[in-house]
Amino acid sequence: MKELRVAELRAAEPKEQGDLILTGRPIIYDEPTTIKAPFGEYIEVIKRGALDKADITDVRLLYNHDMNKIPLARTPKTMQLSIDPAGLLMRAELPNTEDGKSVHTAVGRGDLSGMSFAFKVPKGGSHYDAKTNTRTITKIEKVYECSITPFPAYPQTSVEARSQIEDIWKELKAPERQAAKIKLNKILSRSVL
C-alpha cells in the first residue's frame, strides 16, 4: 500500500547564478506522529533501521504529490538520498525553470517548509498496538517519491488503505471501537500494494 508522510525542508543559498539546491529530511526515525484519518487518530512511529533495505533508487521529487507535472528532480542524477542514523536525507538540484525557481524561492522565504513522502510497507513491516493506538513501522520496502508541500502537518495514508479502515470504522459505534482497533491491526499488519 502506498502511503504519504510529512517532514521538513530547507533551501540552500545559491553559490552560482541558477544554482537551485534544496536539502531536507523527508523521513525521521523514532518520532511519534499523529495521523489524522477520517475514522479517527492514531500515533505512528517509523523505527530506526526501517529504511535499511528500502529501494530508494528511483525516487522523484514532486510539488504536492502532483504527478501531472514534470518532476523537480529524480534519483540518482539530480537528487541524492542517503540513509543515516536519524532517517533519510535529501539533496536536490532543481531545474532552472519557473517551477524550480518558484519552489526554491518559496522554500527560502519559509512559505514552503514541509516535505511529504510516498512509500510502501511490506507484509509484516508494521504492527498496530490497540492498547496504545500506535502503529509502528519497522520496514519500508520502497520510497516512491518525496514532495515539497505547503501543508507540512498533512499526513495522509493512501486512498486504498483509508478505504479499508474507513469501511470497518463506519460499521461501529463508540463502544465497539476497541474491537475495531484489533481489526485495524490485522489490516495494517498485512499491508499489500
Automatic annotation (TrEMBL):
<feature type="domain" description="Prohead serine protease">
    <location>
        <begin position="9"/>
        <end position="166"/>
    </location>
</feature>
<keyword id="KW-1188">Viral release from host cell</keyword>
<dbReference type="GO" id="GO:0008233">
    <property type="term" value="F:peptidase activity"/>
</dbReference>
<dbReference type="Pfam" id="PF04586">
    <property type="entry name" value="Peptidase_S78"/>
</dbReference>
<dbReference type="InterPro" id="IPR054613">
    <property type="entry name" value="Peptidase_S78_dom"/>
</dbReference>
<dbReference type="InterPro" id="IPR006433">
    <property type="entry name" value="Prohead_protease"/>
</dbReference>
<keyword id="KW-0645">Protease</keyword>
<keyword id="KW-0378">Hydrolase</keyword>
<dbReference type="GO" id="GO:0006508">
    <property type="term" value="P:proteolysis"/>
</dbReference>
<protein>
    <submittedName>
        <fullName>HK97 family phage prohead protease</fullName>
    </submittedName>
</protein>
